[in-house]
Amino acid sequence: MNGLKLLATGRCLPAAAVTNEDMRRYVDTSDEWITTRTGIRQRYFCAEGENALTLASGAARQALADSGIPKEELGCVVCATVSADYATPSLSCLVQAELGLPEEIPVLDLNAACSGFLYAVAVARGLLAQNGKKYALIIGCEVLSRLMNMSDRSTCVLFGDGAGAAVFEAGPDFPFYALQGARGDKAILANGPGPLAPDLSMDGRAVFRFAVEALPHCIQGIQDQSGLSLEKIDWVVCHQANERIIDHCVKKLKAPAEKFYKNMARYGNTSAASIPIALDEMNRDGKLKPGQKILCVGFGGGLTWAAALFTI
Ligand code: UT7
């Protein structure tokens, strides 16, 4: 099967940033507690007129424009989300209509929580292999402020809203390695029953323990598949849940910390959007150079985990 190359990225955030200090309007917390436990300093919440569609279409429009690919050449649209505006139509279908994307292609949403973007990359690769087309539009988008219990200080300070998007090209010469896994469990991290209820619940310590196992497991898995050591990989982009989780993993692997990108300070945990938002930030900051290899790793609700190594 063809590999995938990252061609272009985009991101879109709500207009208003909400600082840790602002969170004190909702719960008894402090900037000091949030910063030292998580590395998060601010997040964005949707306000009137902002929703999953405005975020997802904003990010997708930017990625498509930067790719230079005529939209008629897209081979699939896959959006990873747990917080879409409608149960149906899917967020992907709404983006398709908004951006006037082609009809004779698969357009779907996928729920793998914080691993969703990387599951979507793997699914999109398979869809392109099936229909023989070259380009995939992949979006990660969340309006987690809809799911959060704003009186639960152990969760509401952690999450944020946002969207990231990427256009990938399929080709035989692009290195690509991926893995996905899951361990069904609704005791550790859950929202529901029923869609979009503001009742997200989480056993933070159990998620932490899971995450610090999942990250090294995924990185090792990709290294085993590819035969590439971390020295040969230019960037590691982990799901941006918590700075301490990434630091723990760096220490455990004795890995070069400077290769592990971190931006949770600016966005909080945006679940499926966190990896594509990070890729777009790195791209626009000039950190990504042609030929570089990027290893992305996700973990979270489900429980799920996933990783993908691709080139730029
Ligand atoms: O995509 C995956 C998403 N999930 C995660 O990334 C979560 C991973 N877990 C974590 O990062 C950490 O477990 C947390 C940051 C969520 C919590 O840190 P912790 O060190 O495990 O704290 P804790 O839950 O054990 O709580 C310690 C104390 C408690 O007070 P007492 O009982 O010791 O008096 C909490 O009530 O901190 C209190 N606390 C807070 N205090 C101020 C909990 N939330 C807050 C808060 N502000 N926002």
Strand content: 25-35%
SSE run: EEHHEHEHEHEHEEEEHEHEHHEE
Which molecules other than protein and nucleic acid are bound?
A: oxa(dethia)-CoA
If helices are DSSP runs of H or I spanning 4 or more residues, what is the number of helices? 10
Using the 3D structure, state the CATH architecture: 3-Layer(aba) Sandwich
In spatial order, strands of the major sheet run 1-7-6-4-5
Rough outline: globular
Given this structure, which CATH class is correct? Answer: Alpha Beta
Structural class: alpha/beta
Mind describing the biggest β-sheet?
5 strands, mixed
Low-pLDDT residue intervals, each spanning 5 or more residues: none
CATH topology: Peroxisomal Thiolase, Chain A, domain 1
Number of strands: 14
CATH superfamily annotation: Thiolase/Chalcone synthase
- Terminal-residue CA separation: 18 Å
Specify the helix fraction band.
25-40%
Rg, Å, rounded: 18 Å
Determine the mean pLDDT: 97
